[in-house]
Design goal:
Layout lengths: L2 E7 L9 H17 L4 E5 L8 H14 L6 H4 L30 E12 L2 E5 L6 E4 L7 E9 L2 E7 L11 E4 L3 H5 L4 E11 H14 L2 E5 L7 H7 L4 H4 L2 E4 L11 H15 L3
Parallel strand pairs: 1-2, 1-10, 2-8, 9-10, 9-11
Antiparallel strand pairs: 3-4, 3-6, 4-5, 6-7
């Protein structure tokens, strides 16, 4: 599977009645993104007025909290109203969020770590009971991935790039200023819509394109405004933005499909198509 970026409208979950439900819906999105090893989530403005920037900031905060290893959260996130219901978020259980006992198990595992101080050596908090000092200068307060190799009584530690595909370290969440500018960085751009080509007709073409592409994005509209309507409201040319538009739930049995539901259905289909 090529590097995968998902684009969601900045208005996502802004229509729910309270913080509790919004947090839960965002947490579900995080689980889906991690399940299918998404690299990045981009939150794009779905109106010319850009009225949902504050909501996008809330989504980013919740998801960044979620992709932070549980043993680092108290140090990085003070108590605040926006994270009042963070305890409802589902655990990601990605490879870099292991239990402390994993460090004693024979073999190789990975841990997310926080750089506490930096000089000729760097001091890391990695949920191992006490901070760990390793060679090398790392940016203070940065998050890094620590590779732990256990062989008998010997333990070796090495920092690997967060962008390395050696281990899945979760996804990044970013806010972008325009949809069309954000799409320029990808060599294959997939749009989702009930007006798109039924997936059973598009699957072979989709599969071939996913195998040859390096940077793929998939773009979603909202439940009340499909992607065609959003692009029209933004004053953009739909046909120039996307390489393919697919309907991943042909003959849907419900009037509207929630954005987070469409995300789960579509990433499951793309995961299959990339491996055909």
């Amino acid at each position: 599977m090529p590097r995968l970026t998902v684009l969601l409208p900045q208005s996502f979950a802004s229509d729910v009645p309270g913080l509790r439900e919004a947090t839960s819906r965002i947490g579900f999105v995080g689980r889906v993104l991690a399940t299918f090893r998404a690299d990045t989530l981009l939150l794009y403005p779905d109106s010319r007025e850009k009225t949902h920037l504050r909501n996008a900031g809330f989504i980013r905060e919740v998801l960044e909290y979620l992709v932070t290893a549980p043993y680092l959260r108290k140090q990085l996130y003070p108590l605040k109203p926006s994270l009042r219901y963070a305890g409802l978020l589902p655990p990601l259980n990605i490879p870099t969020h292991p239990e402390a006992e994993a460090a004693k198990t024979e073999g190789t595992h990975y841990r997310q770590a926080l750089v506490l101080s930096s000089g000729e050596t760097s001091l890391l908090e990695a949920g191992l009971g006490r901070p760990l000092r390793i060679r090398g200068r790392l940016p203070k307060n940065s998050l890094v991935v620590l590779k732990v190799k256990v062989s008998g009584k010997h333990v070796k530690y090495k920092v690997v790039s967060k962008r390395s595909r050696e281990v899945y370290n979760g996804f990044r969440t970013r806010i972008v200023n325009s949809l069309d500018e954000a799409l320029k960085q990808f060599d294959y751009r997939v749009a989702t819509s009930r007006l798109g080509e039924p997936i059973n007709q598009a699957i072979d073409k989709l599969s071939q394109s996913l195998k040859s592409a390096k940077e793929v994005c998939v773009v979603f509209g909202s439940a009340d405004r499909g992607l065609h309507r959003i692009v029209e409201d933004l004053g953009l040319d739909y046909n120039s933005l996307f390489d393919i538009t697919v309907n991943t739930v042909p003959e849907q049995g419900v009037k509207t499909i929630r954005t987070e539901e469409a995300l789960a259905y579509t990433l499951a289909v793309l995961n299959l198509a990339a491996r055909m």
